[in-house]
Amino acid sequence: MRLSQMLFVTLREDPAEAEIPSHKLLLRAGYIRRIASGVYAYLPLMWRVLKKVSNIVREEMDATGAQECLLPQLQPAELWQESGRWETYTKAEGIMFALTDRQEREMGLGPTHEEVITAIARDMIRSYRQLPLHLYQIQNKFRDEIRPRFGLMRGREFIMKDGYSFHADEASLQETYADMDWAYSNMFRRCGLEFRAVQADSGAIGGAASQEFMILAEAGEDEVLYTEDGKYAANVEKATSLPAEAKSSAFVLYEKRETPNTNTIDKLCQFFKCSPTEIVKNIIYRVVYDNGRMVLVLVSIRGDLEVNEVKLYNELARLAPTYGGNAIIAVDIPSEQVQQQLTLKPLPLGYIGPDLADNYITPAEQLHPEFLRFADRTVVELKNFVTGANETGYHVVGANWGEQFPLSDRLVDLRKSQAGDRAVHDPSQVLKSARGIEVGHIFQLGTKYSQALGATYTNEQGESVPLVMGCYGVGVSRLAQAAVEQSYDKDGIIWPVAIAPYHAIICIPNISDTDQVEVAENLYTELNAVGIETLLDDREERAGVKFKDADLVGIPYRIVTGRSLKVGKVEVVERATKTSHEIAISEVAATLKTWIDEALSSAVK
Ligand code: ATP
Ligand code: MG
């Protein structure tokens, strides 16, 4: 392609709309244009990158025996009502774009495709002989994200590879899951990315395994906790660890003490000159279920620790049937205004004890009359602890479970692990923290959707049983930007060779010099003919401008038909290292071919 004929517009200044380097660079180098919040046009250079990423994804998927298909983006509400996700996805969570067609039928734009694929499996898979089966697609997804940001990282329309597998049993699912782990690792390696596979939260579905693939980068929205021995890595949402040892308490006598202005753990520790590990703190949450039922939740946890709200959410989701619901609409710490409606008298915030009386709760039809009390495992061992006295300005000290306070029988792990904690598998290992960009997620779904939609098959014994399912996603457009976030310098993008829009760019420093033009034109034809994807900068611009643009756009090899032409050579500059080589014109194609093949194969290892 000739730059003179391309839609090629670069910006010198950082666009105000972008916060992180990759977003700034993709805008400046003319890869993408914002059309609306979270909605981007992929311009020709970007589209080449996206096609390369998609092809790598496709090759690795096909190699596992998965089959590509294309499912509709426009989906009927009924399918989502069958799975029970319509209300939560369109209203509570609100992530799904919904519309009503001219026949007054409700439809949604696909944020994901479990419902559609399960409906197909329900209709078409009859027998165990058809299993296992794995279908995937690469296409646009729509999600009305609350905070679309960072360009392609969190868009409202974005490209995803999503695959769904169907199995006769768990063992077969495990096999495909392991194949996907392998295929995903290959994909990301081939794209030239530094990544880490981490244990991930699998929601309230139960013991199902799930793993995320993270590109390590400062701008990542996820936090990963890992150990240096390489044996443990998990999303902070999922991570477990051993908490720091608790200090043994100096309060041997149980008594109520006046503790003015101690409504935070810090202030209370200062007041008593004690460690936060001697304190049981109690936090009030509210959960709203899909049947409208509301429950106030009291969580007791050691004073130095934080509640992991994903773990709490999962516990509450499991309890939905107890309150007559199927799913959660929201979990929050109720605002002051909401609290006033839910409680008869103001809660003694900052001074709450684990035994806060149920008669605080306003009698109301949709409000459960008792607190749902959880104790994080870390409070069990505490002796002679400090906690709230349920009266503003007062705490109790020297308290013990089974004496002054009953211990909740809902003992669960609700603690947020953090860097510095000791690892469970080896307490001599300490958890470290890194930021990650989630580019892939593989997930053992089990029978959640097949049961809801009645997707069954007949097994060898002739019984009709639900299909066992797995699902596997790659954020194709997010991945392309993540590659930039991991590889750039002050001058611009440094694309890994495997996903660069072009391999080489030929810059003609002076287009009125006919020798320069002739050599460049010949090389341009020759390189493209041997499969080296080459751009020709034949614009009427100063050489400096051309070099700056080539660096910004990030093409791996720049060829300059400049001074050394006199001795039959051109200059070839490697973008990543800025190393410059003088190469005989006749050898340029062969040399580049070797370098490109080397770069591609080293990314495969
Ligand atoms: P996240 O936790 O980042 O919101 P998710 O868990 O909702 O993602 P999945 O439903 O597992 O994502 O989707 C599969 C993949 O699609 C993700 O691993 C991610 O790479 C990508 N993805 C998800 N949401 C977006 C988005 N809004 N924009 C771009 N890519 C996305
Ligand atoms: Mg995810």
Structure overview:
The chain has 605 residues and is an alpha+beta fold. It folds into 3 domains: 10-73 and 110-194 and 447-485, Bira Bifunctional Protein, Domain 2 (BirA Bifunctional Protein, domain 2); 255-415, YbaK protein (Alpha-Beta Complex); 502-603, Anticodon-binding domain (Rossmann fold, 3-Layer(aba) Sandwich), CATH 3.40.50. It is built from 14 helices and 31 strands. The strands form 7 sheets. Strands 3, 7, 8, 9, 10, 11, 12, 21 and 24 form a 9-stranded mixed sheet that branches. Strands 13, 14, 15, 16, 17, 18, 19 and 20 form an 8-stranded mixed sheet that branches. β14 and β15 (294-302) form a beta hairpin. α1 crosses α11, α2 packs antiparallel against α6 and α2 packs across α11. The longest helix has 21 residues, at 170-190. The chain is globular. The structure holds adenosine-5'-triphosphate and magnesium ion (MG). Residues 438, 441 line the site of magnesium ion. InterPro entries: aa-tRNA-synt_IIb (IPR002314), aa-tRNA-synth_II (IPR006195), aa-tRNA-synth_II/BPL/LPL (IPR045864), Anticodon-bd (IPR004154), Anticodon-bd_dom_sf (IPR036621), Cro/C1-type_HTH (IPR001387), Pro-tRNA-ligase_IIa (IPR002316), Pro-tRNA-synth_IIa_bac-type (IPR004500). GO terms for molecular function: aminoacyl-tRNA deacylase activity; ATP binding; proline-tRNA ligase activity. Pfam families: HGTP_anticodon (PF03129), tRNA-synt_2b (PF00587), tRNA_edit (PF04073).
